[in-house]
Amino acid sequence: MLSDKLKLTAKEILEKEFKSGVRGYKQEEVDKFLDQVIKDYETFHQEYEDLQQENLRLKKQLDDTYKKQTPVQTNTTNFDILKRLSNLEKHVFGSKLYD
């Protein structure tokens, strides 16, 4: 899953604390940027979860469709084919075939 591959969660980003230095970044700008990152991260994660659910639903739907289809008969022998062909010829050509 995605959560196994991600190194950070939205909560970890939110709770991240930076050490301040003499000429460090403005804390307000960093916080504002991290807020945007958190929102994007949560949106990305939600979209990913939605797509995973849709993928599972579609796979199940596909499996159900294939299960409903009747299997094609594959045990037809040459004799059966020749018999059907003979019957078809009799039906189409009738007595003309044997004249």
Structure description:
- The chain is built from 4 helices and no strands.
- The chain starts with a helix and ends in a 6-residue tail after the last helix.
- It is 69% helix and 0% strand.
Lay out the secondary structure:
Elements lengths: L1 H4 L4 H6 L11 H42 L9 H16 L6
Main attributes of the structure:
about 100 residues; 4 helices
Task: Please summarize what this structure is.
The chain has 99 residues and is mostly helical. The protein has helices at 2-5, 10-15, 27-68, 78-93.
Measured distance between first and last alpha carbons: 74 Å
Total number of helices: 4
Average of pLDDT: 81
Main beta-sheet annotation: none
Rounded to an integer, what's the Rg over CA atoms? 34 Å
Instruction: Estimate what percentage of residues fall within beta strands.
Output: under 5%
The stretches of 5 or more residues where confidence is low (pLDDT under 50) are none
Given the helix and strand composition, which structural class is it? mainly alpha
Q: What's the count of strands?
A: 0
What is the overall shape? rod-shaped
H/E element string? HHHH
Q: In percent, how helical is the residue content?
A: 55-70%
